[in-house]
Amino acid sequence: MSNWIEKNTTLKKRPFSFHEYEFQRQIADDMHPDLSCIKCSQIGLTEVQLRKYGGFLKRNTAVTGIFTLPNDKMYKRVSQTRFKPLMDSEPVFNQGGIEKPIRSMGLYQIDQSFGYFTGNTEGDATSISADMLVHDEVDLSDPAMLGLFQSRLQNSDFKITQGFSTPTFVGFGIDAKFKASDQHEYLCRCTRCNHWNDPVFTPKFICLPGLSSDLNDLSEIDVDMAAKIALEEAYVRCEKCSAPLDLGNPSLRQWVAKFPSRRARGYRVRPFATPRLTVPYIVGQLLKMKQQENLRGWYNTVLGEPYNDSNARLSEADVRAVMAGASKPDTLPQEIGIGIDVGQICHLVYGTPDVVFGWEQIHADKLVERIKQLGEQYTIVTGALDRHPYTPTANELRDSTHGRIAPVEYRGAASMNLVLDEFEAFSHVQVNRTQIIDAVVSSIRKKQWAFTGYTQYERLIIEHLQDMVRIESAEEPAKWQKLTGNDHFFHALGFLKAAFKLKTIQDFQDLTENRIMSSVITVNIPTHNESHLGLKRPSGKPISIGLHREGF
User: Fold this and answer.
1) Please, what is the average pLDDT of the chain?
2) Is the pLDDT of residue 547 over 90?
């Protein structure tokens, strides 16, 4: 494929070349059905992906491809500014004898083949059959949607899926895919000692004249340190003999798999895969991103490495700081709230706004009976549980507790909406997922909660509370993303937080006994309750709760 790309495509009106980007050649040639590439930015792989995608459609008869990006804005930009000019200007894509091939923002016809571009939506994931899937910016894409696209390959003889992305967090997205692969690294042979190096931005590989030898982490370089460094004399060196490495000599470079027997294919593209991304450039970007308080962005985009920002993910230390003992307190409150993450195995937490002392796992078939038992032991004053996927069970608990335990669904931008059925009776609650999870994280970091009574679940609770990361992007609102899906106690705590918020509202308006006539209730929340709700607002300000009627 790389030779075909060079022969048939151009870039900036010049024949396409892999010069100084020789690492791209093997990636372009590799048609492995399960390929993942973790990469830094400004490395030229998007141009190669688009040409490889177009080449697959051209060189195979009557095939279909789907090229996904995280959202509509990104796919439209890539389609209009990168792929369309390629289709319009290259003769090879216009030689099939078809007078007017279909060419639109979301669909390109090349001879008898068709290439789709999509913003990673469910409609496209379930309605288009494909032979090849190309997922660009995997870490910014919805993992559930990426999973749905796999069903589009079922009838294909090719069944190719290739994903590319700058990384975000350790163990998430493209980083997880790469770690499960054969892990190709682009090595460089030292001309002095013949040692094969995998150069990274660490003191072992980077010579920075003027920098103190006591510095073990180069990300700690600041403006004052940089002023003392002779950056024009900096170079990448052999880890064995310290001789300068010739990064631009293709004869000294080679892709080598760390685990060649693994079935999945993986490539890691670091900045030193090309001689064009220099040490002064990397240091300069470090200083700029530090000024912007975006160290994670430097790791992700400049180095191509995942990075766990403490602000984006709870640390084990954060969680352990609120763990006050595996046993229940000697004196327990009579009134409790309860939060339930529902699945085949349900996860329950219960306690007060200040102390969570009950942690349980129970089969879904036994959930209703267990809540009944807890109701005999305590006074359950509020509660919340998943409305989905077991809606009948959620409704049964709502009705049996006279609305004290409310079905909850993550939906909408408003903090909380109370939904009425067609008879104007209370149906369920909608909450803003990001805000509720933010409130859980805030309560843990600020030590507004204490965890006790977790018995054998200590390790599991820590794992669950570390299984989501907060992703912020200029393109989309902030969201919490699962890493492995083992986050059940995290959501149970979120439902507990929502339950106490709902309880504050119910203290002012009995939703199960009074017919609500107005479309919006404005409730003044007393100042002393705000910390329990995870709210960040000036005291005395009203909270507006929208009421939505199903079927209207």
Assistant:
1) 90
2) no
